[in-house]
Specification:
614 residues; alpha/beta; 7-stranded mixed sheet; 5-stranded parallel sheet; 26 helices; 43% helix
């Protein structure tokens, strides 16, 4: 079915092919991607858009000695297939299978592990400088998308790289614009010209000759920039110190191979701008690249068909609440760092476009922007994934918490996230949030409580966070009320004997199930900060063992808050802390991962039983 692709087990095999065979390889590779991802789920649109680029890079560059650093990394399936992992694609994003992102311990061809955006240029620059220091001739390439280029770190790296003479190539994969045939042909020709050795040599010679005549040299540089600027958008990158080339058609193999072959011979920082189409080669994905960005299993011949769900997700609860609260309070503004669909803001953006702000992949800016809005009377709600909030920790402390500004955080994907793995798991937010002064941190146990807590957080005149998991909850019906709940107050949900389980957020449901086996008391703690110390002390006085359960790392988390409370009041009672282990958990089925961590009902009951028997 894939006669040529099946002969490729490494880039060495690829580089043995005749150049005329490459179009057949890309066709087979694209077909294999569609078939493979339809069986496993994963990122589709982004991978279909980088097939030709991936083939051209491995054909021209001597990987793995030459380093390829993929920004975000959700477009590396073709890269994985060509670097000996074709058979392993059947286990993509599954337990004990290969990751959906580059991982250094998975393959020597994965030069840098990624999952978040805007890191590639910094990492590739570091590798280029390391090669330079070691006297090596290998090259470093950063492949970054136009979305990731909106992150400030990318521009910090460009600024640094342009001042060095390291052999770095930055490829901007621009998949958010079209390129017409006449302009494309002209730009393809110019790219070949500007990446050629003759042009580079002529440029260097001219600079040497004109150095003795500074005014003429300056005039020549400005003239060159002006001519290039008329036909390319590269003036900005030239100002950073890069030699800008492009834009070129990222699906034209001949142009890609010629241009990359020329660039590999050039010295110093180079910038190649290519234009691609997300979902290329699969009509359904071309028509709706957002729908096909991250997919579950589907039939390629029919495409994705919507399946009705009887449960609402936490993301939907937030989206509905946001629209309802916005209708009631005109001060509310919604902010997201490029996660409109994922964070549930689509309806809000449609209903309140003047109060909706997608700031791009710029988490740091999102928070300080929210702080500025809060300073002048707005009530900002920042919708953000737990793992992405990590990237703006300084802004959270310096710009929001120290000034005690009423910025509310709706933190999605708290806890384990399954197939996306360690880079996207929200394993640490309870720990890194509760240590910040002025913060209020809530963890809902069900869908209705999530809505109540969102209202509670919004009405606070201080920084606040509501942290909820990915997907659906236990299935509790959601009331349309916007009334808040009492801050810092938990509740006893089951009365038992000897053992008291203090459950935080998503762990209430399995804790209640475990308690039925043990006849234990169960408290829904609700608040991580401020902790309901009165309830903790009451439970400690009436039970012989306290058990804390949270879907967060044990280090510094909610259980630590309980232990600190007991120590502060001089209470000496045995405490068992259950939570995520001190390690990065890889991809897998979420329910199985929780079971493996001992955080399902049987695991909780088993751990308590062992503690009582010891």
């Amino acid at each position: 079915m894939y006669p040529l692709l099946e002969t490729i087990n490494s880039p060495d095999d690829l580089r043995k092919l005749d150049r005329a065979q490459l179009p057949q390889l890309t066709d087979e590779l694209r077909a294999f991607l569609i078939e493979s991802v339809s069986k496993t789920g994963g990122h589709l649109s982004s991978n279909l858009g980088t097939v030709e680029l991936t083939v051209a890079l491995h054909y021209i560059y001597n990987t793995p000695e030459d380093r390829l650093v993929w920004d975000v990394g959700h477009q590396t399936y073709a890269h994985k297939i060509l670097t000996g992992r074709r058979a392993a694609m059947s286990g993509l994003r599954m337990a004990h299978g290969i990751s959906g992102f580059p991982k250094r311990n998975e393959s020597p061809y994965d030069a840098f592990g990624t999952g978040h955006s805007s890191t590639s240029i910094s990492a590739a620059l570091g590798m280029a400088v390391a090669a330079q220091l070691a006297g090596k001739e290998n090259r470093s390439v950063a492949i970054i998308g136009d979305g990731a280029m909106s992150g400030g770190m990318a521009f910090e790296a460009l600024n640094n790289a342009g001042a060095m003479d390291a052999n770095l190539l930055v490829i901007l994969n621009d998949n958010d614009m079209s390129i017409s045939r006449p302009v494309g042909a002209l730009n393809n020709y110019l790219a070949k010209l500007m990446s050629g050795r003759f042009y580079a040599a002529m440029r260097r010679s001219s600079e040497k000759m004109l150095k003795g005549m500074p005014p003429v040299l300056e005039f020549a540089k400005r003239a060159e920039e002006h001519v290039k600027g008329m036909v390319t958008p590269g003036t900005l990158f030239e100002e950073f110190g890069f030699n800008y080339i492009g834009p070129i058609d990222g699906h034209d193999l001949n142009v890609l191979v010629d241009t990359l072959s020329n660039i590999r011979q050039l010295e110093g920082p180079q910038f190649l701008h290519i234009v691609t189409q997300k979902g290329k080669g699969y009509p359904q994905a071309e028509d709706d690249c957002v729908l096909y960005h991250g997919v579950g299993k589907f039939d390629p011949s029919h495409g994705i068909t919507a399946k009705p769900s009887t449960k609402v997700t936490y993301t939907q609860v937030f989206g509905d609440w946001l629209c309802d609260m916005a209708e009631q309070d005109a001060r509310l503004v919604g902010i997201t760092p490029a996660m409109c669909e994922g964070s549930g803001l689509v309806e809000f953006a449609q209903k309140y476009p003047q109060r909706y702000f997608d700031v791009g992949i710029a988490e740091q800016h999102a928070l300080t922007f929210a702080a500025g809005l809060a300073c002048d009377g707005s009530k900002p709600v920042v919708a953000i994934y737990s793992t992405f909030l990590q990237r703006a920790y300084d802004q959270l402390i310096h710009d929001i918490a120290i000034q005690n500004l009423p910025v509310m955080f709706a933190i999605d994907r708290g806890g384990l996230v399954g197939a996306d793995g360690a880079t996207h798991a929200g394993s640490f937010d309870l720990s890194y949030l509760r240590c910040i002064p002025n913060m209020t941190v809530m963890a809902p146990s069900d869908e209705n409580e999530c809505r109540q807590m969102l209202s509670t957080a919004f009405h606070l005149d201080a920084p606040s966070a509501v942290r909820y998991p990915r997907g659906t909850g236990p299935g509790v019906s959601v009331q349309k009320s916007l009334q808040p709940i009492a801050v810092g107050k938990g509740e006893v949900r089951r009365q038992g004997k000897k053992v008291a389980i203090l459950a935080f957020g998503s762990m209430l449901a399995p804790a209640l199930q475990a308690a039925e086996q043990l006849d234990a008391t169960v408290a829904n703690m609700r608040f991580v900060k401020p902790l309901d110390e009165e309830l903790v002390l009451k439970l400690a006085g009436a039970h012989t063992l306290l058990v804390t359960v949270e879907e967060n790392t044990l280090q510094g988390g909610a259980g630590s808050a309980v232990a600190e409370c007991l120590a502060r009041h001089g209470i000496n009672v045995p405490v068992l802390h259950l939570g995520l282990p001190d390690e990065f958990l890889e991809q897998g089925d979420p329910a199985q991962m929780l079971s493996d961590c001992g955080l399902d009902a049987n695991g909780i009951a088993g751990s308590i039983g062992k503690k009582l028997a010891s």
